């Protein structure tokens, strides 16, 4: 009997297994969330850099308004120690007294100082020409038309530095904007604190309020110290130059007091003007101007500034100068004006954040077993 061939069943074809990978809309996947967070950080950093470059001047005006608000808030708090009235009335009184004093000062001394400004410009130009001619006679710089070229380059640098408020109208508009912003913030500071804190997670808001109080405390004392230094240098320079018979003593005292708000750079600028005007009147007046400059600056540096630094935040002079140069190059005259307060805010923020992190780490170690 013939055996039938056995048919073997065909093997089923292999099924290709395809594993789906999470797409960019699968936010529940940890990998996607992690990559999205990284991309968001880099994108946010790029947008922040672009925003700072494009919106440099408005940012400086906002910062200036905040600094002016600190001035008003400090005066309001100080007035509250002697006048137990509502904060709004104290703020209005500070504004009236402050602007009244400034207006009275310029009204009383305006005619004399305005007449002296043109004389000061002529004296500085004449002394600069003499100095360049003396340097050329020693072979330190080229002679001829290059002297005027050097002067034009210096004036061009000053023009670039003041490009943010290049005209009188622009300067007035910028000042008005900062004043209005400062008054609004000083009127209701807690409203703006809560507005910024609302954009933060709940777990970080208490830390934000503590950091804001510390920065405000530091800035109030720093700016109050700047006012004391301005008053000391301005009045001291005016009195001593008047005693020595140096012309335009009141104008030089006013300029020295205003420039005292700028550490390092302001002192150098006022000193150059003071010595130039002194030597224009004679050798003895020029030497007296040098003595006055070093006396006032050293008294401020070794008496006023150390006391202020102990009460606020100690900033290294080289660090302040570097910050001024950087802010002046990036943001012009407004950056130069606000470099010192911005540096103080950055330092206080970094110190407080590191201190809070150390406290949290110590608490975590204390709670950990073993």
Q: How would you characterize this protein structure?
A:
The chain is mostly helical and 370 residues long. It has one domain (55-150, 166-354). It is 80% helix and 0% strand. The chain has eleven helices and no strands. The chain has helices spanning 30-54, 56-80, 87-137, 146-161, 168-187, 189-198, 202-243, 249-259, 265-281, 283-311, 317-367. α7 runs antiparallel to α11 (317-367), α8 packs antiparallel against α9 (265-281) and α9 runs antiparallel to α10 (283-311). The longest helix is centred in the first third of the chain and has 51 residues, at 87-137. It is globular, with a radius of gyration of 32 Å. Mean pLDDT is 77; it is low at 152-166. It is a multi-pass membrane protein. Pfam families: AI-2E_transport. It is found in: Membrane. Belongs to the autoinducer-2 exporter (AI-2E) (TC 2.A.86) family. It comes from Sphingomonas alba.
Cα end-to-end separation = 87 Å
Average pLDDT rating: 77
Beta strands, count: 0
Give the structural class.
Answer: mainly alpha
Residue stretches low in confidence (pLDDT < 50, at least 5 long) are: 152-166
Structural domains: how many: 1
Q: What's the helical proportion of residues?
A: over 70%
Summed up, the helix count is 11
Strand content range: under 5%
What is the overall shape?
globular
Rg result: 32 Å
Main beta sheet: none
Oligomeric state, counting identical vs distinct chains: single chain
Note the run of SSEs as H and E: HHHHHHHHHHH
